[in-house]
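Hi F.,

I've been meaning to write this up properly since the lab meeting, where we talked about keeping a consistent format for the predictions we share between groups. The idea is simple: the sequence comes first, exactly as it goes in, then the structure tokens exactly as they come out, then a line or two of notes. No screenshots and no reformatting. I'm using this chain as the first example so we have something concrete to point to.
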Amino acid sequence: MKTIKHLTLTLLAFGLLTLAASKASAQVGVGVQIGPSPVCPYGYYEAPPYNCAPDGYYGPEWFSGGLFIGAGPWFHGPEHFYGHVDHHYDYRHGYHGGYPNRGEAAVPNRRAFHGNAMHDAQGHEHKGR
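Output, unedited:
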């Protein structure tokens, strides 16, 4: 009788430990994945949800050979980079105009850029420039 009681308690303890271990691994399995950068003709805003920015938001230093070098987690420019932006075209500053779609082609004759701020690739404004 003692053997059956010990075997039952051992199996019960093993079952509880297995159940607790499976719950713990499910809680730890959370991760963040960042996919490829959005394909936007004039770049994308440097803040989530990384929507496409309209023509005129980023200055020419954000582009290399006509291609956007990046902002946010996809930034491909030099360390300590700051580039001009125009807050008039920033949705966080009240812009409600048109936005290009991802994969859309850029308009060949871009209008003149008029920047009014300097940002790093993560959207932090540089106050001294």
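Notes:
Residues 40-129 form one domain.
The first helix runs from residue 2 to 28.

If this format works for you, I'll send the rest the same way.

G.
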